[in-house]
Amino acid sequence: MSPHMRELAARVNLSHKDFIQPLFVDQHIDGPQPIDSLKGMSSDTIDSVLRQIASDMDKGISKFLLFPVPVTDKKKDLDFSFALEAVETIKWEFGDDIWLSSDCCLCSYTPQGHCGV
């Protein structure tokens, strides 16, 4: 058997510790809202994302990828204050108990909706 076939047939043992939970934090909303195109996912406020993280931690999830969705005036300078506030608030609340990464794409900040970098 070739190494490629062995690789395809190898046993894979996945655990909840192998996954990263995406989190969408939207400055436009007042409370959690379902994301129609991502079944089972919601956009959260900064306050509601703290509750979501706490709930996920109770299930053994400790790794998160934050997607901030800011309100922007696309004719002015880039303003990352909402994204920074979300990250700082989450890290203040959970510290080293979680691993947090954040999307840093500029598409939310540009008129055409693309990074353009």
Structural notes for this entry:
By secondary structure, the protein is an alpha/beta fold. Helices cover 29% and strands 19% of the residues. It contains three helices and five strands, in the order αβββαβαβ. The chain has a five-stranded mixed β-sheet with strand order 2-3-1-4-5, covered by helices on one side. Helix 3 (81-94) links the parallel strand 4 (63-69) and strand 5 (99-102). The model has no long low-confidence stretch (mean pLDDT 86).
Give the SSE layout.
Layout lengths: L2 H7 L11 E6 L6 E2 L7 E3 L1 H13 L4 E7 L11 H14 L4 E4 L15
Parallel strand pairs: 1-3, 1-4, 4-5
Antiparallel strand pairs: 2-3
Task: Give the structural class.
Answer: alpha/beta
Alpha carbon gyration radius: 18 Å
Question: DSSP helix count?
Answer: 3
Shape: globular
Q: Level of helix content?
A: 25-40%
Give me the count of strands. 5
Brief description of this entry?
This protein is of the alpha/beta class.
Using brief descriptors, characterize the structure shown.
single chain, 117 residues, alpha/beta, 3 helices, 5 strands, 29% helix
